[in-house]
Structure formats: structure tokens, C-alpha cells
Design goal:
heterodimer, A: about 425 residues, alpha+beta, six-stranded mixed β-sheet, five-stranded mixed β-sheet, about 45% helix, about 20% strand, B: about 450 residues, Cytochrome Bc1 Complex, Chain A, domain 1, 2 domains, globular
């Protein structure tokens, strides 16, 4: 099953991907800017994300919050998100409003700065600090978002520092920083525009040219800090966090092949064998048979540069200590060698990954986002149509090779949350 | 194409084109010989379909003292049957790439399987086989009970879930099923026996109360044949439709604090008992809520987030059930501004009851709900879910065909009337979960009701 893909590039460098599907009169617009928290300078952690908030505060011809209002008035949904290596902005609207969305996105790509004010920056700084409290500080285990990358990547590595940022660095962000970041990274040649759903190709191309064409090309991205990583940690890193939680929870991470590489697909299947749904090894063993855990998951960060991370995320049942949990999870990882992954296990994983893919691309927004992703990372959106095939080609042998290569005790990082009361009791005993 | 350009090469805001027509997928109804109902909506975009079994087995149907049994029984349906263990059942679905989801709601329980077209028939047959005669192994019953207890422990350290649970407890009378979480409490779940489980299943999972919903890449006759073969053997007979007491816990306003040491923020819930889903003013209420707090650009979010920077987001909503579900405003704010934020929310509730909303506010709400309609039904799961809802509330079959028209017909006068009739400032319960010291210090600002301090571990 392949989705249709058409691409072109404007003279200013903007790469455009079109994918038509006229089963419903709706269309998704998705922009990836190739900039994320990895591009922040020292002392400005959290800036890429704060900047994403500022993109909803208006532009030369759009008032503060008018972007949200115009899209919602059109019957559309919208948002933006910031990740380590990219920032995306997306809308899904009834297809008769496509040009409005292109106008809004081009207005902020081309003419953001006249609308930026100190008052808006101060307000969004407060909003972001509250987002930080809501999603990290006031959530049990919430700090894992910061602690895990900090544990896995060295201090100077672009993925090491906090994506949401420290309050101190957020306070330091200025309007001047907004101008610099915008001129450096929010340029057409550092962006991909994907449009998926119901549209007229010729008219859409003309609209894209009209609205985005006049925006000047950028001056090129500054040379990035080296993101090279060794294939393994070279040991077992451990961080134990006594916290205000009731149940122990372990994040066990491994350096893993970058997204899109041949070995990535074996790693991804291995993650599914270990932790995807109830037929996975961790669930069967730790939840069902041994009754040590209440929840098990496994996932990859899907980073295309430096090194990816494969992470096992296991929450204990009441009374199960952090140590017991870590020993039990590590034993399951070690068992991958004594009891290698079988063809049946790979078959289950690939069947689930395949139906997950088809389920996801029912949504125009999801289709557009994946097209932008493949275009941004690899310059080739048609890779979206290769994914199922690449998973199908993964053999048990390849998964077992990945296990030998990357899941040994010389490539582990444990982030272990334990109930603070229990930790205090143990220390006192 | 060229057009007028503004200074600096800018292009003026374009006008939109006329909309292309959209219809919610057509569906057909059939009856099984044992009394079960069948609803089939062919929707062909990708080779995928979703099949849902809806049983009259929601939380309100539970025997008193056994709260949580509906969810427990729902989850146990896949934990063992005559021929298969729970592990084998999971394995078999997953090797087909089929995803099974069980959702216990207040009124009904829903089990949905989604699969690629080529595996659909095998997945549905297998689902029929296992849910027809679940074996409820003692070991799995006890395991799922432990997992629920772990979930409750986790929730007591998690401010959002804790606030939601405690809010239900202060809004509804203790005799109401709605005052306790769907999954049950530590005490009620612990008391459930294997016999209770079997009895609940025998009482509630009867063909006369079953509805099968199919949406996706299936034609009507295929869906019909598949369903008869998978579910035609269920015993006939219909469970009684259950109800619960949905009256408020108290007359007048209440102010409630749930202490949580070291909280970095305060979770705030403000609301009262609302209205049932089948209500003649449904559309007016939906639009009124959208103006008040249903959207990003609604009054409450613009006030708390964009004007004051108190929060990352603030929203209001009516929770639709067969009986009176709650109306609530939810947000998380900086601890030191909690009372001020609560005052702003109450001021917005008062304001929408004082005067008609502006034409611009009304049209934002109506054009959003009108326009977003087709975007809601992009997936087979969402189409199936819409038909499950239609069935649960007994909505007319043309509901989705008239929805947009009815939404557009709501006037500013209707909104004012709905606000005056269905928002009751004198009945508001204000609940805060957070650091009790600083919260209490602010309460003078909100001196409208006596303060009750709650301990989440006290079961009522």
C-alpha cells in the first residue's frame, strides 16, 4: 500500500511535499523546521520550545492568538511541538480553507519579528514555566524527560540538556534572542512543507509559490556541535532517584542505531519483542508470570543523528523494590542471549508494527507529519512507502545480532525511581 | 497566479472557497436471531476495519459495594477462555496484528478490535470465541485486582488523576455510583470474588443487550455474515437497564482542599452536577460551553493563560452520560495564584450568565464545531466510536446528518438561556489539590463557603 507523493523545491530552498487523498474534504498542512533543543546555545536551554510558543503570538498581518482563532473558526485543528532536532507546526482544516493556512504559515515564516513584543515574551515565559510545572515538576516520574538524556549523552552533546529548559535560562531569553534564532533557523531553506489530503495540485502549487516564494533564503545553518557518539556506553550507568512516588519505576536505556539505518529496524523490532503489548517478553514475564510489574513498555527515540536510544520502561507493583525491578528487567534482557528471539516473535512484532502504520496514516495530519520527517531527515519523503517493507525484511538473525551488539551490560543506563519513604527506611536500617 | 501585494511583498489574507460536501458514512442496521443488534458502516479508505461489541455492562450496572467489577470483568474477557490462556489469547490477536481495546464506560462496556482487512475475519471469529465463554481464572482475577490497587496507589501521587477522582467525590452524593471512579476503590475492588465476576458476566453480557458495530473496509453482507458466525451463539435475554442516584453531595457552594505536600502547582476543578446527554437543549449547551471554555480561544483559556499567564491551559466541559454527568472546569495553576485563578473562573461563569455572548464568539464556536465535523471521522475507530455513542444514548439515526445544521442554528439568545439554566454558580464545588499551607493562606480571597480538608485515603 503506497501513498502518492509529489515534490518540488522553491528557488528560496523551501522543499514541498504533496500527497493527495480525496476520500474526505479535509487537508493537512505540516511544516518541519530543522531546529530543536539541540541547536540552543549555552545558557538558553528551553529556548527552541519557548520560540515555538512565540510563533502563535502573531506576525506582521496576524494579531496575537489570531492564528488559533482563524484556524478554529475555519473548523480546523492545530498545534506545534518541539523535539531535540526539529520543531513542527501543523493544521488540519476543511479543504476549502487550504489557502488561509498557507497564508498564515507563510506570514509567520516571512514576517514574524514585527509582531514580537516584550509583553508577549513575558507572558509566554510564564505559560512555559507552567507547562514545565504541569508536565515535569508536578508529575510523579516527570523528571525522566530531563534525567534520561542527561544520563545517556555527555555534557557537551547537543542532546544532553533539558528540552523544556531551566527557569533561569527561560528568564534570560530576550527579544534579541528571538530575532537571532528566527533569522538563523526559521528560513525556507531550513524547512519542509507537507500538504496531505484533498487539494487541487496545480492550484496548490501556485498558492505555495505565491505565499512562500517571496520569502528570502536564509544564510545557512551554523555548523553544529559534533553529535558523534560511540556505539556503546562502555559500562552500566546508574542513577537512583528517591521521589514522591508510590511504585518503583525503571527506565533502562541502550545506545542504539540511528533512525533510518539498516540496524535501526532490527532494533525497533527488538524493542517490540521486548515491550510492545501483552504478548511481549517483558509483559509475559514480569506482569503475567512473576507479578512484579504493573506496566511494561519499550520505545526508541527515533533520532537520526548521533545515536538513538532504545528504552525499556517498567513500573513495579506495590512492594517491589527498585533493586528487584532492575534485576528482573536486566534478567529478561540477558535472556535474549540464552533464549534467542524467534521467527514467531519477529512475526508478531512486524504484524503489530504494520497495522500500527496503516492505522496511523488514516489521519491526514499523521501522513503529512511523516512525509515532513522523512524529507527533513533524509531528503526523501517517499521513504514513507518503504517502511513496512523494511520491517518485513527484518529477520530473527538480525535481531539477535543487534542484541549481541547493543544490549550487553557494557551498554546500559538505568534511571531508577524509588519511593522516597522506602529509600529513607532502607538508609536508616 | 498573481494578486495584490502589501508593503514588503506581503500578500493579503485570502478568502476561502466554498466547502465541498461531506456526509458521515451511511450505515445499515440488522438484527441477530438471538436479539443482538448489528450496525455496519462501510467506509473505504484503507484496508482496515474496526469491530466493537457493546454490552449493557457499564459501571452504573454494578452491585453496591462491588464498584470496579464492570471494568474488571471487561478486562478479564481476554484473560482466559475454554481453550486458551490469557497469554495465548494476547499472542493470537497480536500475530494477526489485531489490536483489541476494552473500555468500560459509565453506561456500557465496549470491546473493539481493529485489524487489517486480510486478518479481520480471523480476529473477529477469535474474539467471538473467547468472549462467548470466558473462564475467569482465579489467578488472573487476583492479578488484575492487584494491578488496580497499584494504579490507585500511583494515582494518589499523581495530582491530575487525584483531582478528578476527588472532584467526583465532592460533587455527587455518596450513594451515587458517579462519586467513585469507574475502576473502583481499594476497598470495593478487594472485596470482589471470582463468583461475583461470573455472576456479573452472566447477568450483563446477554445477547438482548448486545450491539455489534462495524466500521471500515467491509461491505454490509460480509459484516453480517462475520457477526452471525462470531456472536450468533450468545444466549438470548436482555439485562435490565440500570440507573444510579445522580444527585449532588450538598446544597450550596463548597470549597475543598486535598493536601499534597511538595506540590509544584495546584490542580483546580470547579463545577457541579450537569445534565444528561439526551437533553432538548443539548446543542445550546454545547455551544455555550465552547464559548466559555471548550476551545483554546474560549474565554477561560484566554483569561487564565493568555491574559494572566497563570497556567498552560484551562478548559471546561460537560461529561455526557445517560444520567446527569458533571460540568467541570479543569486547570493546573501556580500555587500562589490558585485563589485568583478560581475567582477568574467563577467570574467567567457569572459573566456568561449575565449577557449574550458576542456574535463573533458565537460564530467562532459554531463554525468550529460545524467545520471540524469531517475531521473527527478520519479513522475507522472514530467512526465506530460515534456509532457506539449513537447506540448508547439512543440518538436518532440521522443524528450525524443533522448535527452541523443544528449547531449552526444556535443563537446568542440560546447560549444565554443555556448558561442561565444549566450553570449554577450557587452550586459550584471548588477543589484544589496542592500544598495545603499556601492554599489555605489564600482562601480569604475566596471566602464564599466553608473549607473542607480531604484525605484521599478515607473511603466514603
Amino acid at each position: 500500500m503506497r501513498i502518492p507523493i509529489d515534490t518540488f523545491r522553491l528557488p528560496n530552498g523551501l522543499f514541498v511535499v504533496l500527497s493527495m487523498d480525496q476520500t474526505a474534504p479535509i487537508v493537512a498542512v505540516n511544516l518541519w523546521y530543522h531546529v530543536g533543543s539541540a541547536n540552543e546555545r549555552t545558557g538558553r536551554t528551553g529556548f527552541a520550545h519557548l520560540f515555538e510558543h512565540m510563533l502563535f503570538q502573531g506576525s506582521a498581518d496576524v494579531d496575537s492568538n489570531e492564528h488559533f482563532e482563524l484556524i478554529q473558526r475555519a473548523g480546523g485543528t492545530l498545534n506545534g511541538s518541539t523535539w531535540l532536532d526539529r520543531t513542527n507546526y501543523f493544521e488540519t482544516v476543511p479543504s476549502n480553507h487550504l489557502e488561509l493556512v498557507l497564508w498564515l504559515e507563510s506570514n509567520r515564516m516571512g514576517h514574524l519579528l514585527p509582531a514580537m513584543t516584550q509583553q508577549k515574551l513575558d507572558n509566554q515565559r510564564d505559560v512555559v514555566k507552567n507547562e514545565r510545572r504541569w508536565s515535569l515538576d508536578n508529575q510523579p516520574y516527570g523528571s525522566w524527560w530531563e534525567r534520561l538524556p542527561a544520563l545517556c549523552y555527555p555534557l557537551e552533546h547537543p542532546f544532553h540538556h533539558s528540552l523544556i529548559g531551566s527557569n533561569e535560562d527561560l528568564d534570560a531569553a530576550s527579544l534579541e534572542d528571538i530575532g537571532d534564532f528566527f533569522r538563523t533557523y526559521y528560513t525556507p531553506d531550513n524547512a519542509v512543507l507537507s500538504i496531505a489530503g484533498d487539494f487541487d495540485p496545480a492550484r496548490t502549487r501556485a498558492w505555495v509559490e505565491r505565499h512562500f516564494g517571496p520569502i528570502p533564503k536564509g544564510g545557512g545553518r551554523p555548523s553544529a556541535t559534533s553529535d558523534a557518539m560511540p556505539p556503546r556506553f562502555g559500562g552500566w550507568r546508574r542513577e537512583v532517584v528517591p521521589d514522591n512516588v508510590a511504585l518503583s519505576r525503571l527506565f533502562l536505556a541502550f545506545l542504539s542505531p540511528v533512525f533510518g539505518s539498516e540496524a535501526y529496524y532490527a532494533a525497533s523490532v527488538c524493542a517490540a519483542v521486548l515491550g510492545l503489548k501483552k504478548g511481549s517478553r517483558l509483559y509475559r514475564s514480569l506482569v503475567r508470570d512473576r507479578r512484579l510489574a504493573s506496566d511494561t513498555k519499550a520505545f526508541t527515540y527515533d533520532l537520526s543523528k548521533g545515536s538513538d536510544l532504545l528504552v525499556l520502561d517498567v513500573t513495579g507493583l506495590a512492594g517491589v523494590s527498585g533493586e528487584e525491578l532492575e534485576v528482573a528487567v536486566a534478567a529478561e534482557v540477558d535472556a535474549l542471549r540464552s533464549k534467542p528471539v524467534t521467527g514467531e516473535e519477529v512475526g508478531r512484532a512486524v504484524a503489530l508494527l504494520e497495522s500500527d502504520y496503516v492505522t496511523a496514516i488514516q489521519s491526514a495530519g499523521e501522513r503529512a507529519d511523516r512525509l515532513s520527517m522523512f524529507a527533513t531527515y533524509f531528503g526523501d519523503p517517499s521513504l514513507i512507502n518503504e517502511q513496512v517493507e523494511r520491517y518485513r525484511k527484518v529477520t530473527a538473525k538480525a535481531v539477535n545480532e543487534f542484541v549481541r551488539d547493543r544490549l550487553g551490560s557494557d551498554n546500559r543506563a538505568s534511571l531508577l525511581y524509588v519511593p522516597r519513604e522506602a529509600a529513607t527506611r532502607t538508609a536508616a536500617a | 497566479m498573481t494578486g495584490a501585494t502589501q508593503a514588503g511583498g506581503r500578500v493579503p489574507r485570502p478568502d476561502s472557497l466554498p466547502p465541498r460536501p461531506y456526509r458521515f458514512p451511511r450505515f445499515e442496521r440488522r438484527r441477530l436471531d438471538n436479539g443482538g443488534k448489528l450496525v455496519i458502516a462501510p467506509a473505504r479508505k484503507l484496508p482496515l476495519a474496526t469491530v466493537c461489541i457493546v454490552a449493557e455492562a457499564g459501571a452504573v450496572t454494578e452491585p453496591a459495594g462491588r464498584e470496579g467489577i464492570a471494568q474488571l470483568v471487561g478486562d478479564l474477557l481476554l484473560e482466559g477462555s475454554a481453550g486458551y490462556s490469557g497469554a495465548e489469547i494476547a499472542e493470537r490477536f497480536e500475530r494477526l496484528g489485531a489490536v483489541v481495546e476494552i473500555e468500560t464506560q459509565w453506561d456500557v462496556s465496549v470491546i473493539c478490535v481493529s485489524a487489517l482487512r486480510q486478518h479481520l475475519e480471523s480476529a473477529v471469529q477469535f474474539l467471538g470465541e473467547v468472549v462467548r465463554a470466558p473462564s475467569f481464572p482465579e489467578r488472573e482475577v487476583e492479578r488484575l485486582k492487584s494491578e488496580r490497587r497499584a494504579e490507585l496507589m500511583r494515582q494518589h501521587t499523581e495530582p491530575r488523576g487525584l483531582a478528578d477522582d476527588m472532584f467526583s467525590r465532592v460533587v455527587y452524593t455518596a450513594a451515587s455510583r458517579y462519586s467513585r471512579p469507574i475502576g473502583g476503590t481499594e476497598k470495593s475492588v478487594t472485596s470482589i470474588s471470582g463468583q461475583d465476576v461470573q455472576r456479573f458476566f452472566d447477568d450483563r453480557y446477554r445477547a438482548g443487550g448486545l450491539t455489534i458495530v462495524i466500521a471500515g473496509d467491509v461491505d454490509v453482507d460480509d459484516g453480517d455474515r462475520m457477526t452471525r458466525s462470531a456472536f450468533g451463539g450468545w444466549p438470548a435475554g436482555a439485562p435490565v437497564i440500570a440507573t444510579t442516584n445522580d444527585t449532588p453531595a450538598r446544597d450550596g457552594r463548597g470549597l475543598h482542599i486535598v493536601p499534597k505536600a511538595d506540590a509544584q502547582q495546584a490542580e483546580l476543578r470547579i463545577g457541579h452536577v450537569g445534565v444528561p446527554r439526551n437533553h432538548p437543549d443539548y446543542y445550546s449547551i454545547v455551544i455555550m460551553n465552547a464559548v466559555l471554555g471548550g476551545l483554546f480561544s474560549s474565554r477561560i483559556n484566554l483569561n487564565l493563560r493568555e491574559r494572566h499567564g497563570y497556567t498552560y491551559g484551562a478548559f471546561s466541559g460537560f461529561d455526557w452520560r445517560r444520567q446527569c454527568g458533571p460540568f467541570s472546569v479543569s486547570t493546573a495553576v501556580q500555587t500562589e495564584v490558585t485563589a485568583r485563578a478560581a475567582k477568574e473562573v467563577i467570574a467567567e461563569i457569572d459573566r456568561i450568565r449575565e449577557a449574550e455572548v458576542s456574535a463573533a464568539e458565537l460564530s467562532l464556536a459554531t463554525s468550529y464545531l460545524d467545520g471540524v465535523f469531517p475531521i473527527r471521522y478520519e479513522t475507522t475507530e472514530s467512526i465506530a466510536d460515534a456509532l457506539v455513542t449513537l447506540n448508547t444514548f439512543g440518538l436518532p439515526d440521522n443524528f450525524h446528518d443533522v448535527y452541523r445544521e443544528r449547531i449552526r442554528a444556535v443563537t446568542t439568545h440560546d447560549v444565554l438561556r443555556a448558561a442561565r439554566e444549566y450553570l449554577t454558580p450557587d452550586a459550584l464545588q471548588v477543589l484544589m489539590v496542592g500544598d495545603a499551607g499556601p492554599l489555605r493562606a489564600q482562601l480569604e480571597e475566596l471566602a464564599f463557603a466553608p473549607v473542607t480538608l480531604h484525605n484521599p485515603k478515607d473511603e466514603s
